[in-house]
Design brief:
Elements (H helix, E strand, L loop, with lengths): L18 H32 L1 H12 L1 H28 L6 H26 L3
Helix pairs in contact: 1-2, 1-3, 3-4
Length: about 130
């Protein structure tokens, strides 16, 4: 009987990619994106404190399609990260750790973040 050599450290090549892995990676990425997005929020608040010229310039940038795309991404990042935090809170309470519930919560996080972002923009921005 021959044994197959095993890697010393398991890596993505060993594991099948799952939705929970994708949500874990997305949670980390959105955490970093929230830092960057908060810089844009501080820029907007600081420009309002500086004066109408600076505030008008920043609002003009945020009103541009590129600025709108950045703000849409920041909104999604905030909502996705928040739902990921709720997902981890549920897991920390020792619920939803079995295989079907774990995947259902992860899919709910992914789908819910998109739907909630669209709802926020539909209610407050695109009205």
């Amino acid at each position: 009987m021959t044994t197959r050599p095993r890697p010393l450290s398991p890596h993505l090549q060993v594991y099948r990619f799952t939705i929970t892995m994708a949500m874990s990676i997305a949670q980390r990425i959105t955490g970093v994106a929230n830092y960057v997005g908060t810089v844009f929020l501080v820029l907007w608040l600081a420009s309002a404190a500086i004066g109408p010229d600076a505030f008008g310039w920043v609002n003009q940038f945020y009103g541009h399609p590129i600025g709108q795309l950045v703000m849409f991404g920041y909104t999604w990042s905030l909502i996705h990260h928040m739902l990921g935090g709720i997902r981890h809170f549920v897991w920390d309470s020792i619920h939803g750790l079995d295989h079907p519930a774990r995947n259902q919560i992860a899919w709910a996080n992914a789908i819910g973040s998109v739907l909630l972002t669209l709802a926020v923009w539909a209610l407050f921005v695109w009205r």
